From TrEMBL:
Keywords: Glycosidase, Hydrolase, Membrane, Transmembrane, Transmembrane helix. One of its GO terms (molecular function) is mannosylglycoprotein endo-beta-mannosidase activity. InterPro entries: Beta-gal/glucu_dom_sf, Beta-mannosidase-like_N2, EBDG/EBM, FA58C, Galactose-bd-like_sf, GH, Ig-like_fold, Ig-like_GH2. Residues 1117-1220, 1255-1287 are annotated as: Disordered. This is Mannosylglycoprotein endo-beta-mannosidase. The keyword Iron does not apply. The chain crosses the membrane at residues 1224-1244. Residues 1-144 form the F5/8 type C domain. PROSITE patterns: FA58C_3 (PS50022). It comes from Blattamonas nauphoetae. Belongs to the glycosyl hydrolase 2 family. Its EC number is 3.2.1.152.
Amino acid sequence: MISFFCPFTQSSSVDLTHVGHLTTLPRRPTASNVLNESFSSELYWESYTNQSEWLIVDLGQVSTLQNITIEWDTTKYATAFSVEIANDTNLSTNWTTVQSEKNLTKPNRHINFKSKSLARYVKLNCTKSAASTFLIKHIEIFGNNTLPSPSSISSVFDNQTKLLHLDGTAWKIQRSSENEATPQNTSSTTFNDSTWFAASVPGTVVSSFLKLGAIPDPSFAHQHMMISDGYFTASWWFRRLFTLPPDVVGTRVLLNLDGLSWKGEIYINEKLVGATRAAFEHLIVDITDFIHPPNASSAGKQNVIAILVHTPPHTGPFNIKTHQAPSKDFHYVDQDAPTFLQTQGGKWTPPIAGRNVGITDRIFLSFKKAVTIEDYAVRTDSITFPTEIGVATNASLTFTARLRNRGNTKLSGNLKVHIVGTNISLSEKPTLDANSSTIVSIQIDMKNASLWWPNRYGKPNLYQCQASFEIVGDEKENEKWNADEKKTNMLTWAKTTSDLVSFEFGVRKITLEQSNMKLEVNNRPIRLTGGVWRGAEFQNNIHGPKFFENRARLHQEAGLNAIRNAGGQTDSEEFYSALSRHGILLLDEFWLRSDTAPTVLPSNTSLFADLAKAKMNRVKKHVCLGWVGIREMDGETEEEKKEWKEMKDLLNGSVLGVAEVEFVVYPSDVSVITGEVQTAHPLFVHYTHKFSSDKPIALPRSFILDAPLPLFPSSTSLRQTLSPPSRSAVSLEWGLHDYSLTGDVNGTGFELAVSKFEQKGQTPPTPTGLTLKNSRTSDPVTSFCKAAQIVSYLTAQGLFDAALAGESPGLLFGNSNPAWSTLGSQLYDYWLETGAGYFGVKNGNTPLKAIWKEETHKMDIINNCGRNMMGLNIRVLVWDESGDEVKEITISTQLNATEVKDGLIDLTDLFDESTSTHSNSKNDKLLFVQVSFNQTQAEDYDTGDDFVICDNFLWIGGKTKSWNTLLSKTPTLNVEYVWMENEEKTENKRLKIVVSNPSSHPAIQTRILLLSRTTLKRVLPVFFSDNFFFVPPKGNKTIVASFDWKGDKENVGVLCEAGNADWVEGKEKTGKTTPNKILPAWKAKMKKEEEEEKVGEKGQMAVAEWVNKMRMGEDAKMAELRKKERKEEEGEGKEKKEEKKEEKKEEKKEEKEEKKEEKKEEKKEEKKEETKKEDPTEEEARKKREAELAKQKKEQEEALEAAKKAREEEEKRKTAQKSRAHSFGVFVTFVFVGIVTFFVIFTADRPNITLLPSRMRRGQRETNRQTRDLSTEDTEPLFRTASGDVV
């Protein structure tokens, strides 16, 4: 990890208006010009003051520097500055001045180094300005380095599935404001995209820039606030070339786009072929007529796909969190649903620059003939359960699908359905009209069915179903094809095959009683325990086949069997498939806010309902789908209530009749923690908000939808999350990573619990934050994290134990999958390391449970897997806090599927002074209890499981015990390991690790860590059978670790520590030479971290000042802006009134003059008539003059009326402009980015960082570059800042 001392910004000026990058707004923003985007295209960086301001550029690696070009503002330029360089990552020191300027009278644009300089970091240190600030529009650094370009992966054609995958790194992206070409030209083969940026798909624009090394890693420290929201929140072009494979002749080519955000238009070979209307829309477009046909004459000819992707219209302001203020409740993006709801910043996610604009899911081409198979599934209609051992389980199933004829002629064919591994093969012969679709159903009777069970209740058995449609054709060819299929027992592609699909399904029947949320699967009651999934990854940076597989497996191995897809923020096919394979029931949702009851309706409810129905048709085939739910919705007015009711009815209709699941409306208070429960652990502090031992935990007996659970990461994870100066105190940077003193994390209560272990003789922490101190060690960060691991472990176990004892039908805790580097609730960390909280959850969800009853000093045994347990042996070992074994019990019994054996394990003698044989037994005694279950006889005939072996480990007693002495006694640890055979299914490597404790003190919370010997990086993920475990004196513990490792086994190192013991290195138990030891290097790394963390308060104050300027200053600045705008409006109003008064005066004056003229003319006429009464010629002349006067008067009136209307139209236009400008009420000025334009990267664990050598500015600006040096003209710059229109 790269560590640095400076206040973590790459600029000395960072707040809402002075932003540390060159892609911010062009002038002081107002609420109107930001939201209406009515600002100019030029962007810049501006400092706070006119002295001692600086900027740092990270070139990604050591580079040879030649010169720098700076485009200063013509008035706000530096009259004195210096250029400094450095290679050391400690940027507080080691700067070397290579050029300095003083007393300048005009901007110095070109700086040539006197000699070639080698550096990674370049610092522009401005000491004096010609004006009140420094303002830079553009900066370029020229030189040479060896940064590699991202490798381009061409299209991959899968001949078995007939899919051409367009995922990968062959894509290019560019901001739409930087592309002046038309969409047609952009999607032509002659278009030049050489200055565009390399991109990875699926992925967002921001995630592509991160892979290029162009922005700092947003998961570290507060660097997510250093990425320009103004630059990335815009429309972007995605473009790539592809060629069709030669063996798809005669097929129709379908473009499959599984998701982009927010919406976009797709162009192929200069033609618009389709468009998406919102995020999460899966698009299938027939592009056969727009591409070069796949025939011999055009084989290898390139095609172009270009997609213009737009951000949602209601992006809203950033939601800035601190350790004192956890989260604001913003609902701006709700109007654009379906969309990514947390991109403004949510309870467990940061604000995301660009609002996840990009291609967010798979994109591929499929090759089919006229008839395609869509919306397919296998539904379980009924199951006949056995009544005795040896009787088979039979099931009645239905295959359903929509057959679509995309051709212009009527077609007949044969629909074949085959269940792989069985003798089930069925067919139907439908006839399809041209350009039409029809739904077909085929009944299936399955004998000896293996049922799908949720985790803990049995095996998640799956079948593979194949369906193909064969167009009537050559009978001989068809006979040969059928014969081949019988040999392989698989459906295969043939010349007459129009479409072939293959998918997994399970046999299971779900019933739900919504009144009490009690669930049955296959006629057995199921207790749901699991977590809330709030998105997969905060930037949608999802790559690799194991992304969802690893996360689903971690849930399964923790004993969980349910995930709630909050707000429907993940809908990838791989997500549903992984959950099905691991026995995880998915409580799915649509795209409405789920942290609280939704308050804002989507602007297009009919589109929302259409996409909801399409989603259900798409995912109904997955056996993991349990039900679909939303929070209770209501409105304040009658009109709002009516709208919400209509919305619920629309969504209910999207589920009913489409999938075999129920639509559930959760009560708004479903996660309120109330009621009573019989048992609790004294360290389970979260729900009482105090460290109390005389009060039981209060949990409801109802279904708990979203229980807050603070699970703190390990010290290794914390150090990869926070910058060194911020680690030594609970400060604002902790708040940015979701750790707050109030709210769901309840840091005040959590720190109070930690203090029982950690802060001897000190008062509990106050709500202002905790400074980490310890009397045992000089490393407060490690010490605090060790104590926090104990609290996380016991809190997690206590929550699930309390819910089980309280007979809750289900419990889900908040945020089991961390979508980013959070310090709050998480089952595992962002990098998939499992902390102590994970194993506390695992210990609370074993198939058999021992529940401690504080009031009776006995333990109940509860069946937590719904299966009959025959031949059950129970062994109980009890140690005191000194590690002495004080009791051993063995019990043989059996448990029925739903049985509870009250008080089966009796420990009263250890707490009764009169009968106890243990000298120190008191009611406040702390005991460690291990309960081991071993099943020797299996009689459960329909789950597929044979035996159950599991352990429960409990901390009991210790009501008033002084916990801080628990970790003061240090044991001795020895670690040996041997390599085992690889896992059969995954090919993961496996280690058997034995930790022994020859000392007389117990090892508390013992932890195994696997590292790479060459890089000292963590091996992740690792699936441990147990971790953070207890090792008694003279005892040992055996652990099995499984992990994906492609390198040499010798390069894996094993380290071990305990809560009360330092790191030791494991030794391989073989005759081989021991590899190089890694413990000295690891300790040196930890010591360096500790030194950097000692800057403590100085760093905290810097971050506090920085964040306060952003968060606390926002409202004041907005108020000032609005006040100013109101004054402007009032001033404009006065001017308008004066104008109207003047206009009225002029009108009256004109009318008066006209009347005067009329009277004069009338008098003249009267005189003429008196003198020439009988003259007919004169009479004609008079009438003519009167007609001319009338005409003139009419023209004048029309002119006046036209002028009046024009003024009124102008007034209306101005009023409408003002109305639009102020209709939003809030504006987004949150466009910071330390130096995104500088493309700075301080990223963790990424040695070779690529800096963008491309141009991010408008083409016409090239004409302004004629004065640059020849050396500059002839050299491509190492680094350029970003500039361009904000769209």
